[in-house]
Amino acid sequence: ADALISTGLADLGYVYVNIDDCWSTATRNSKGQLVPDPKTFPSGIKALADYIHGKGLKLGIYSDAGIFTCQVRPGSLYHENDDAELFASWGVDYLKYDNCFNLGIKPEDRYPPMRDALNATERTIFYSLCEWGVDDPALWADKVGNSWRTTDDINDSWASMTTIADLNDKWAAYA
């Protein structure tokens, strides 16, 4: 957050500070809630959100439409309502929702429950679907989320960038 401000990036429209996988502990608490890793976030996520909001920026968080995240932390599949309420109570503004450990359930069936749970919180939370383009999200995801991935992860190479650009040619009509 501080770097977005000090470098002028916030003035250019960069407003989200997003936390990716591994922000939580390896298990849920006795109430079934996700728990921020106390070593990484000793004051919790709400305090972080308050700090970021105080800078005029927004906080994003990561979860997964599977039983685990990609790094084997608790996922949100079958916990959508509780997790959405928790994210809203913390002041989260953005959710990246990944596609690991999904039990073979189609994305079109796994992603809408979190959409509905987020909408029920009455907090505006940008919903980013990260299903890697597996089931052609350009054909269905606009009814579910605010944005969606169309390919697998990008790597730090020119070949990776050009490959992903080439893979997206088929989606030009939907842009």
TrEMBL record:
Organism name: Davidia involucrata (Dove tree)
Keywords of this entry: Disulfide bond, Glycosidase, Hydrolase
PANTHER family noted in UniProt: ALPHA-GALACTOSIDASE MEL1, ALPHA-GALACTOSIDASE/ALPHA-N-ACETYLGALACTOSAMINIDASE
Catalytic activity field: Hydrolysis of terminal, non-reducing alpha-D-galactose residues in alpha-D-galactosides, including galactose oligosaccharides, galactomannans and galactolipids
SUPFAM superfamilies documented for this protein: (Trans)glycosidases
Pfam family, one: Melibiase_2
Protein name: Alpha-galactosidase
GO biological process, any: carbohydrate metabolic process
PROSITE patterns in alphabetical order: ALPHA_GALACTOSIDASE (PS00512)
EC number: 3.2.1.22
Coiled-coil stretches noted in the UniProt entry, renumbered to this chain: none
InterPro entries per record: Aldolase_TIM (IPR013785), GH (IPR017853), Glyco_hydro_27 (IPR002241), Glyco_hydro_27/36_CS (IPR000111)
Keyword Hydrolase listed: yes
Molecular functions (GO terms): alpha-galactosidase activity
Taxon lineage: Eukaryota, Viridiplantae, Streptophyta, Embryophyta, Tracheophyta
Protein family membership: Belongs to the glycosyl hydrolase 27 family.
Record carries keyword Transcription: no
